[in-house]
């Protein structure tokens, strides 16, 4: 068969873009060669509906072992009693959890998308906002930080069945213990979605949700630095609170409800090549080098935040505890969309993002979100953050000046083109 040059040329173009540019999208990272190798392996050929030892297809002896290793490594990494590594994405992990613990029309309390939450936490344009009845908490306008007393007030007033702690654009640590007290006070289940900071949580650099939250979901491809995918965990299994019994009359455990909600509830065959790549990534994250990586991600984010503040950029909440920050550009007279477009021309990739109490639409926005997970993988350290912020500032200050932007793109290429994709 003829090689598909059209697609492989495009893949090479994308590889050049990733190598030569500055990747500051907070949800992206670069995987190691062995994660990539597993993701591109013959395991993509295998159907394996079901779970290790209980499949609906023959020939699953090898992939059973692979999936079990992925589960065991994730359990060790997060100190979890239960893990399901099959969700194809973070959104599907959340879909499965909702299906396991909610009925259509039930109330969910999530972080407002426009304040930093995720689409799947109840946004009206997402299934979570259509199928369930969403109410929201956000950040305080003055501090940019979530206020637990306000969340408690909302929870007591609204009485949700499920509270979701977690965000896509929130730079502060979360108090999961306090969230659990609120959930207990109103009889709600508590889900933590740690998609963004999972890698930092795994290494103990941020608060651990597993002892406090009933269920925890994550993506595997952000700070955790695995292949694109999702995962569901529990610190401890528990009897389902809905009185559901097995055919034998035994009470069903939450682990059984979650497994059934993933398969057959929401997915068919698991992506065994991706599960193998997850296993490799979890193996990497269990090593000491990953601790150095995670610490450097955090240090870089802090150095970057200080460099922005020094140049009079307004970071929501004033700084960062994790790998990212949300910057309100309103005092710089540029929209998030204009900033994103100008930065892309300079080969600096960020995404426009709503800021809390934004007066612009989600297509325009007043802010950008910036993260350090990917550039840290490429070996950049604190001293490079000054340079990067200087480049970003020059683009923003000269966003209509094509000549200056071209010059900055050259500087970005010079800084990045000789660096390996995976240094650290
Ligand atoms: N949850 C949070 C908090 C996220 O930030 C994201 C992705 O950005 C997701 C869920 C969804 O992940 P995916 O894009 O894999 O569906």
Automatic annotation (TrEMBL):
Enzyme class, first EC level, given as a word: transferase
EC number assigned by the record: 2.1.2.1
Record organism: Paenimyroides aestuarii
Pfam families registered for this protein in UniProt: SHMT
Cofactor(s) listed: pyridoxal 5'-phosphate
Recorded family membership: Belongs to the SHMT family.
Biological function: Catalyzes the reversible interconversion of serine and glycine with tetrahydrofolate (THF) serving as the one-carbon carrier. This reaction serves as the major source of one-carbon groups required for the biosynthesis of purines, thymidylate, methionine, and other important biomolecules. Also exhibits THF-independent aldolase activity toward beta-hydroxyamino acids, producing glycine and aldehydes, via a retro-aldol mechanism.
Residue ranges constituting the Serine hydroxymethyltransferase-like domain according to the UniProt record: 2-392
N6-(pyridoxal phosphate)lysine modified-residue sites: 222
Reaction equation(s) it catalyzes: (6R)-5,10-methylene-5,6,7,8-tetrahydrofolate + glycine + H2O = (6S)-5,6,7,8-tetrahydrofolate + L-serine
Pathway annotation: Amino-acid biosynthesis; glycine biosynthesis; glycine from L-serine: step 1/1; One-carbon metabolism; tetrahydrofolate interconversion
Subunit details: Homodimer.
Top-level taxon: Bacteria
Keywords: Amino-acid biosynthesis, Cytoplasm, One-carbon metabolism, Pyridoxal phosphate, Transferase
Main subcellular location: cytoplasm
Protein name, as recorded: Serine hydroxymethyltransferase
Site (Plays an important role in substrate specificity): 221
Location relative to the cell: Cytoplasm
Residues that bind (6S)-5,6,7,8-tetrahydrofolate: 113, 117-119, 361-363
HAMAP family from the UniProt entry: SHMT (MF_00051)
Gene name linked to the record: glyA
Annotated SUPFAM superfamilies: PLP-dependent transferases
